[in-house]
Amino acid sequence: MEFQKELDARGLNCPLPILKTKKALADMSSGAVLKVVSTDCGSVKDMQAFANQTGNQLVEQTEANGEYTFFMKKK
């Protein structure tokens, strides 16, 4: 998937991945895609809740080798 910006949130625990995602999206234009990589298993639930609350779209999420990758499209 194409993305405009990448956020490495590996090693960070809740709520830091969400806070950093929010900050990164604030600097992006509408329709841009942010790739977030996290090792916090709680981020799976948190990213979906964040998308629902903010109106940003969680386009895709995957898990491999203990790393969770999210693609979030800014509203």
Can you put this structure into words, describing what you see?
The chain is an alpha+beta fold and 75 residues long. The protein has a single domain, classed as TusA-like domain (Translation Initiation Factor IF3, 2-Layer Sandwich), CATH 3.30.110. 31% of the residues lie in helices and 35% in strands. The chain contains two helices and four strands; from the N terminus they run E-H-E-H-E-E. The protein has helices at residues 16-26, 43-54; strands spanning 5-9, 33-38, 57-64, 67-73. Strands 1-2-4-3 form a four-stranded mixed β-sheet, with helices on one face. Strand 1 (5-9), helix 1 and strand 2 form a beta-alpha-beta unit. It starts with a strand and ends with a strand.
Question: TL;DR?
Answer:
The chain contains 2 helices and 4 strands. The protein has 75 residues and is of the alpha+beta class. It has a 4-stranded mixed sheet with strand order 1-2-4-3, with helices on one face.
